[in-house]
Design brief:
By secondary structure, the chain is mostly helical. 71% of the residues lie in helices and 0% in strands. It is globular, with a radius of gyration of 19 Å.
Amino acid sequence: MSTTRPEAGTSRWAAAADHFRRWLDGDSAALDDLVRTLTPVLWQVVRAYGLDRHQSEDVVQTTWLTLVRKSDTIEDPQAVSSWLTTTARREAWRVSRTSGKLLPVEDDELAREADISPGADSDVVAADERDRLWGTVGQLSPRCQRLLRIIAFDDRPDYAGIARDLEMPIGSIGPTRGRCLAKLKDLLATNSGKDQ
């Protein structure tokens, strides 16, 4: 049974990182804590793809099984939340595309879909953009990196928890985030110029 619990008010992402770290250190109950913490998030991510309840349950389960199989690929415990949500999105997209092919459609609907469906290279382009973004985030100060990683995956960030985690006043989180995003935007523009 897990004995270490994050304090009340700790952000979901920090708690997930703590559970993941404990699980990697051999606390098997910490995986249960991680599942309880992030399954509601994964459920929302998956349901956004229009999957039914059964398909959504399968995708969430597949996401957790993938984590168990590939946990050694996650170098930073702080990244476990984004890793899981990305894995869930990819699997949900795959299932939605597969199940969509089984539904009969009219010829005119098929023609419209063919015009807007992603090409074979869309996964490669998306992965490249993701790599560039997170590579550029890695060029920011450690404080900006931590702040952006925390707020990037939460629609309603817990500012009190962020302030405590980053040891900064609540009132400075918004302005700091703005400066960090502006710096990120400048770095992305600079790096794009170098790639051309």
